[in-house]
Amino acid sequence: MNTLLEPGMLVRHPGQPDWGTGQVQSNVKGRITVNFEHAGKVLIDGSRVQLQLLPDLPK
């Protein structure tokens, strides 16, 4: 699933629900940078953490 993540997609970290919703900034070779509401920018190792994809917010 992480391989399908692209910039702009909304995700949650399953082990850190208090971080809130995150927006994918980049996904390069399994290293995913996500900007979370309450944690700021975090670099995620996609081989260790399976991010949860959220539906897009209505515009």
Description:
The chain is an all-beta fold. The protein has a single domain (2-53), classed as SH3 type barrels (Roll), CATH 2.30.30. The protein is 0% helix and 41% strand. It has a 5-stranded antiparallel sheet with strand order 4-3-2-1-5, with no helix packed on it. A hairpin with a 2-residue loop joins strand 2 (22-28) and strand 3. The chain is globular, with a radius of gyration of 10 Å. The model has no long low-confidence stretch (mean pLDDT 94).
Uncertain segments are none
Report, as a whole number of angstroms, the end-to-end distance. 25 Å
> What is the helix tally?
0
CATH class: Mainly Beta
Helix content: under 10%
Kindly give the count of domains: 1
Considering the chains and any ligands shown, give keywords for the structure:
SH3 type barrels; 5-stranded antiparallel β-sheet; DUF3553 domain-containing protein; mainly beta; plasmid; 59 residues
Summarize the structure.
By secondary structure, the chain is mostly beta strands.
